Amino acid sequence: MPDLTVGELQEQDLRCRMARGGLYFETGPFVTRLQSPIPPFARSFQNLYAHYPVVDDSRIADFTIQMSGSGGMRRWFRRQAIADIDFPTPFVPMAEAHAQLMFEMGLNWAVASRTLRYLIFHAAVVEKNGRAVIIPGMSGQGKSTLCAGLIHSGWRYFSDEFAMIDFDDLSLIPYPRPLSLKNQSISVIRDHFPEAEISNSLTDTPKGTVAYIRPAREMMSRVGERAQPAAIIFPNYQPDSEAEAYPLKLAEAFLVMTMSSVNYDRFGETSFDALSKLIDQCGVYNIHYPDLKTAIQLVEDVAA
Amino acid sequence: MTGGRLSSDLLVRALTDPAVMENLPARQWTELLRRSRSAMLLPRLSLAAKDTGLLGRLPMPVQMAFRDADVLFAENVRMLRWETNRVRRALFGTAHQPILLKGGAYVLSGLKNGRGRLSTDLDILLAKADLPDVEARLKAAGWKSVGANDYDDHYYREWMHELPPLRHENRHAIIDVHHTILPVTSRLTPDAERLIADSIPIPDEAGTRMLCPEDMVLHAVLHLVYDSDFAGRLRDLLDIQALIAEFSERSDFPVRLIARAKLHGLEGPLDLALNLLQKLLGDGAIKPKTDRNFIPRLVRHAILPAAPEVRKTRAAIARFLLYIRSHWLKMPPFMLMRHLTAKAIRNMKEGKKEVRLAPRAANE
């Protein structure tokens, strides 16, 4: 267990760190350094990252994220926030009330564009009995909802956003972050899992209504333990469908995985070899389901 | 802030004397990694650590960051090779032989200065008379002019030394097609015919050429002295230093370089660049003729890391002055006013800054 977590910091201490040299905290294999002068953001950040280990600046930061607020006239009305990640981004400022979303997008962008030590897929990852399941998905196909369902049904939470794979042994590296739910999926998870720790909803964001699940203390306890990938499952939520799981052909699986990757095209032969081995090692499936309970059962069956 | 040296800059020190990387405290590493990334010099720092056998003794997060940087550089080399290959294919069957400029030439010709040197795009040079045909062939092969509104298009075609940037519709990589190395509106006019006539073939890339060593240095000089983009300034300065060192294995290189500058009418920019090398990097390999201090000081402020607030303001002022200067050198005063006004109006209308993403920056 870590010595100190974000949630244990006094609010004054947290704000001081953020305003000066930065708050250093661990997210999976990375140390992130966060600077921000925006008080409401400090509160929402402390709530969502409560169980993340705080480290000090005797550690080297992998990412520095600088949040900045409004200056000039904007100081007085319609305050905004933007994230600076030492790197050109296409971000435009968002409303200050959406600063948390801005931060999450900033850190995601930094990880996706700069991390070339791992092969990364845009996917959720969960694990049970040493078998990890990769759940890729474009927005809206049910990736995050299914992931949220699984981690409240006995699966260990690895990631909601990135499946990070070590080139040497194809192991998956846990990278748990607050899990983002959008629109209808917020109430689905509230109804099914009242114990889930869900944040207030951010409404009218560029991504619609967004709420975050705070990773619970026990979800963070084995964050250094990797796992081998056992299955890749593409979720397809369809209200009127029958429960169904079918395997993809190798070539088809390879192709859709290249499209799910955020950095496959940056390694040349290395990533071709790694993805070939990954596909050989895992079953790759499409699943169709009419509701969350069915989807969870399908994942149990396929990954068993 | 007396003395103009950049030796206070940790990045410059780490590059020139990699031994300083051993025993750096974590906080300095965090800043050094950030600064190297934004100056596009992390791969070069990584190579410096490897070449001196330091790598295994550095903290693990640094080794991992260097691993990222090595992959980034390998990707960059692959991009340069492949884009060059695609250009050659698009021009196949014609007599056009593109002259690769800057990073493309350093990397593909195997110059030492190419090691760890990142490029944002591929720059090529061809005779002005060939440009219409070259442009048509590139467009037929899938390249499209980038974000060209009518004003930009006019700006490039009438006043600049290159076509509007071309981006490939599938691969998104950008090529800049030049017909000389300074805007046609500049007061100085290097001899484009001699640039082309004296260019030399790149050994392993049949059908492509590069500038002769003297012209290659002069082009890097113009880039440093004229460009209004600051992200790459330190890299430009190090380019010149490394190229001069590399070519000076031939003992008469300094003499040839100065003679060549005279031929192109570029003694002024060369002299300024030599001043910058001497004052900012302490490199007096070739002595400048005159002693200039004001511009070196501005450049120093513009490329230093902007950490504390005072420095930020100073850097902003220096950058602004250099920005104005770079345009002043490129255009007559009336044209300059027109250009800056047109750009300001457009920026106000669009309410955003111009950002040119590195080709691989965006993945989502």
> Gyration radius of chain A, to the nearest Å?
19 Å
Series of H and E elements of chain B: HHHHEHEHEHEEHEEHHHHHHH
Q: Helix proportion of residues of chain A, in percent?
A: 25-40%
Total strands of chain A: the figure is: 17
Poorly predicted regions of chain A? none
* Mean pLDDT value of chain B: 85
Based on helices, strands and strand pairing, what is the structural class of chain B?
Answer: alpha/beta
Q: Catalogue the unreliable spans of chain B.
A: 352-364
| Domain tally of chain A | 2
Structural class of chain A: alpha+beta
Compute the number of structural domains of chain B. 1
Span from first to last CA of chain B?
43 Å
Per CATH, the class of chain B reads Alpha Beta
In DSSP terms (H or I, runs of 4 or more residues), the helix count of chain B works out at 15
Separation, N- and C-terminal Cα atoms of chain A: 30 Å
> Which of globular, elongated, flat, extended, rod-shaped describes the shape of chain A?
globular
In this structure, how is the largest beta sheet of chain A organized? 8 strands, mixed
**What level of helicity do the residues of chain B show?**
40-55%
List the helices and strands and how they pair.
The complex is a heterodimer of chains A (304) and B (364).
Chain A: H1 11-19, E1 23-27, E2 30-35, H2 39-48, E3 54-55, E4 63-68, E5 80-84, E6 94-95, H3 99-114, E7 118-128, E8 131-136, H4 143-151, E9 156-159, E10 162-166, E11 172-173, E12 179-182, H5 184-192, E13 202-205, E14 208-213, E15 228-237, E16 244-247, H6 250-260, H7 269-281, E17 283-289, H8 292-303
Parallel strand pairs in A: 2-4, 8-15, 15-17
Antiparallel strand pairs in A: 1-2, 1-3, 4-5, 5-6, 7-8, 7-9, 7-10, 10-11, 12-14, 13-14, 16-17
Chain B: H1 10-16, H2 26-38, H3 42-51, H4 60-90, E1 99-101, H5 102-108, E2 122-125, H6 131-140, E3 143-145, H7 150-159, E4 166-168, E5 174-178, H8 192-197, E6 200-201, E7 209-210, H9 213-226, H10 233-247, H11 253-264, H12 267-281, H13 294-303, H14 309-330, H15 333-350
Parallel strand pairs in B: 1-7, 2-5
Antiparallel strand pairs in B: 1-2, 3-4, 4-5, 6-7
Helix pairs in contact in B: 3-4, 4-5, 9-10, 9-11, 9-12, 12-13, 13-14
